Amino acid sequence: MVTRRKLLNLLSALNVSDLLPHHANAINRFSKTPKTLRVYYGTQSSKLPEYEMPSVTWGVIQGRKEKLVSRVIIFDYLKGLGIIPDELHDLELPSTVDVMRERVEFLQKIGLTVDDINNYPLILGCSVRKNMIPVLGYLEKIGIGRPKLGEFVKNYPQVLHASVIVELAPVVKFLRGLDVEKDDIGYVLQKYPELLGFKLEGTMSTSVAYLVSIGVNPRDIGPMVTQYPYFLGMRVGTVIKPLIDYLVDLGLPKKVLARMLEKRAYILGYDLEETVKPNVECLISFGVRRECLASVIAQYPQILGLPLKAKLSTQQYFFSLKLKVDPEGFARVVENMPQVVSLNQHVIMKPVEFLLGRTVTVEDVARMVIKCPQLVASRVELMKNSYYFFKSEMGRPLKELVEFPEYFTYSLESRIKPRYQRLKSKGIRCSLNWMLNCSDQRFEERLQGHYIETESAGPRFCMGGKLELPGNDIMSDDEAESDDEVLYTRTVSL
């Protein structure tokens, strides 16, 4: 105790300021700690802790006061340009206005406006040399032209925060692995730039795996992505699978559904609750039979996404007014050719006027259209040639055309003329149905007289089954279907 008291007396007698003039003065300016403690700190270092271990980043090298001052100056600069910096308070900003000016001018140079920057002000946190130039250079390398880079950044400004090696390049590699052509990568990303932010093991992989599981050819995934890349961002459990299950429940086989999706991937984008289900109910309300819904969708998949009620109402009224087709007949027309809901009325009237000009009555035209709706989409020039051959060369009564309007849907040069000449050379007279509604092989068998076949209305459709042709029970062995072939009942118009 005596020794300690002596030491304290000695220290109190000494003038510390004389011993440590520089250190003490510095500490007196910046510290309010007691005198004894100031001596302790002063002996450890000549600098404040803030300056002891300077960071390699410019943001920390600045003192607190300097940072606040520079932030105020930068905010004033941005406000002067019309940029609202409210969202930048928690963002690391440059130390000088010159650096921020460089960023703003670079963004404006590639095509961004002040409004674009205000839509995503966090873009100002990206360094020109560390972020913008490497990312934009990579985007240009994979096929996004320099004039389009600005538009790309407008649509997806978050891309400038991404790492080329860690985030962007793996997504491009994944798309190439799906058989997306190299030249199409830029096109795909411009349509759906958010792809660059997806994780490979997440939604994209599961979407592709599910589509392949229902029968989509893996080699067709690439063209599907090119046509409609948005399905890569759709969740299987909540979006894709419910739509597929609903269509299968309507009677569409998965094989047919897979072929539809391969050609028209955008069907996956139709909202099930808001669009698909209401359109199906609309078809039923207009008289389309429930068992025919699968056939209607298979022939014209786009019908699921149309503003259907308005189109059906318009076309039904037009058919009733101009063609004298009643609502029930119009429903049969839709079942046999659903594309009629989108067919221009001027196009419809041309073949109708042609038939009316050939002394076919309005009632007969209505019957012909109900039986063969493809008439209303036929080219009048081809109809004229077929009609003149029918009248001049074949010399048949007009009644046969009314009974078999499908005559106008066959090629004059490749089917009608050759078969008529064969029949004429053999002195055989038959109906138009018997002559035209069969394959070339079946026609040859008919000419040889290997069997006698009664006429029928043609192929019969049962969704998911096989095509039941007239005379199946006496089909030749050469025409028998192999076990691994599945012949669906109607060719899907894709």
TrEMBL record:
InterPro entries with a match to the protein in the record: MTERF (IPR003690), MTERF_sf (IPR038538)
Q: Which GO terms describe its cellular component?
A: chloroplast
Chief localization? plastid
Q: Name one GO biological process term.
A: developmental process
Q: Which GO terms describe its molecular function?
A: nucleic acid binding
Q: Provide this UniProt record's keywords sorted from A to Z.
A: Chloroplast, Plastid, Transcription, Transcription regulation, Transcription termination, Transit peptide
Subcellular location field: Plastid, Chloroplast
Q: Specify whether Transcription is a keyword of the entry.
A: yes
Gene3D superfamilies, per database record: Transcription termination factor 3, mitochondrial (1.25.70.10)
Question: Pfam family example for this protein?
Answer: mTERF
PANTHER family to which the protein is assigned, alphabetical: CGI-12 PROTEIN-RELATED, EXPRESSED PROTEIN
Q: Please state which protein family the record places this protein in.
A: Belongs to the mTERF family.
Which protein, by its recorded name, is this? Transcription termination factor MTERF4, chloroplastic
Q: Which organism is it from?
A: Vigna radiata var. radiata
